[in-house]
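Look at a sample.

——
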Amino acid sequence: MQTQNRKWVVILCWLTVVFEGFDLVALGASIPTLLDTQHAGINAAGATFVATISLVGVGIGAALIGPISDRFGRRLPLIICVLLFSIFTLLFPLMPTVATMGLLRLLAGLGLGGCMPIAITAMQEASSSERKAHSSTLTMTGYHVGAVAASVVALLVGANWQWLFYAGGILGLLAVPLMWAKLPETSPVVKAVKADKAAAPKVRVGDLLRKPYLRITLGLWVAAFMGLLLVYGLNTWLPQLMRQAGYNVADSLVLLLVLNVGAIAGLLTGGRVADRRGVKGTTMFWFASAAVLLVILSIRMENQLVLNGVVLVTGFFVFCAQVLVYGFVGYLYPRHIVASGMGFVSAVGRLGAITGPWLTGTLVAADLAYPFSFYVFAAAAVLGLVAVSVVPKAKRGADEPVAAPAG
């Protein structure tokens, strides 16, 4: 791929991932105000419903987009996903009931769910054969830049939570024409077919659950589930968790900002380490470190500087551990089903993204969230480590995995 085209892939795929980070933190930062004002009659159960149903949409979108992208390419499906997300995000603050708020979040989630798998796949395809983990983590820094931006906007707008969603929708709409003009196609299969150089290999999603990919698929699915349980549980409910622990709302929003700054640093570091030292060992170390730090966070700290430092380092390990799971995909699946592999890893992971906010919200409603939510998060990190341990080591430096599906 030409350098100019690769530059636009990096910029635009990174930007699409910004939307998800912004969107998730926008909802999490809005929840305390929504509960305090009882907007549209919302309560803790209603907030849990809205947070959960939006992630159902994201999971469905992620599952559907993989086979579509393997068949029709990366460019057009990604643009359509961004457009859908942007429209329904803009409309969300106008909804008068919890039910309609949930419906709009579901529809926005369908578009949002397709963005990340395609963006990471396109970035891996545009990268060299030995930098797939780094391309994944580089792309996902966009998620946390979006989260940081949402945290800053939340501090600026205060009780005017609606502007968080207006900002996210407008940003997406502005990106659509730029993507249409500048985003190249990266799928090697689709490009070859268009150039009449090869016939399209048949996309068989069932290969993901056949030898030699069954062990890979199951391990990655469990690891992604646990990783996204952590990411979404923390980013959705951290302000409320810290408020239950006795910190004020402003400090809780600052902690959310610090958590995502740590995540950006971890992603810039973790991918390079994984490509150099091995994806498997690096991912296991990141999950193990996350488990220890989450247990430490269950202890109330009076010194704000110490607390900020622990949250920063927690973000460094927790969020990168989950993203490193995506780094396996480009190394372990063949190119004609790599987007399907990425999409289903993301989709099954979204079940964890649904479980994390739901489980944490249940503990919040029962007034048990602090410190028990952090124990649950630490256990999830340990299970993620175990799941990664059964995945074969990624073979770096090859265009295709050595193994081929049976049949």
Observations:
- The domain at 3-389 is CATH 1.20.1250.20 (Growth Hormone; Chain: A;).
- Residues 397-407 have pLDDT under 50 and may be disordered.
- The chain has one domain: 3-389.
- The longest helix spans residues 3-37.
